[in-house]
What we know:
Low-confidence stretches: none
Largest sheet: 4 strands, antiparallel
Amino acid sequence: xxxxAFMGVSCLCGLAMGFFALESADLVRQEKDLKxxxxxxxxxxxxxxxxxVRVREMTxxxxxxxxxQKKTSRWLSILDHFSRNLPPNTWLTAVRSNDSDPxxxxxLTLVGVSENQERVGEVLLRLQAIPDLLNVAxxxxxxxxxxxxxxxxxxxxxxxxxxxxxxxxxxxxxxxxKA
Length: 179
């Protein structure tokens, strides 16, 4: 009986060893296959790393270009509104902008001529309707003579919405070095 039990356990151990040997051989084969795939994908991985570096280098440029595109479209919208919505017998003679402080909105100055004060008021109301302009205000008006006719010269100031840049953040290390 002891001998039969010994033979049964020995066969069982032999079968388990055979099973584990086959599994080990399969795992070694899988490892070799994976190493081949890694070698085959090494150029792709290197290209991905190179592209990631390029993207990091280009991100500031892309941000600048996107900002410029947004500002350009805002100005196009404002100028398009001027061209379509000025009252009759009203003309703009000068358009100036001032952005001496980049952390504040751009200040826009419009100088124009109209036939009467009512048209100047209408210009002011129409400019206030532009969503890209803030704090639209009449700075001055004066009566002018243009050859044989008289007109009202006006000056309007406004701020271009969302045109201020973020103030640069000071790093904590910079302030520690100065102290």
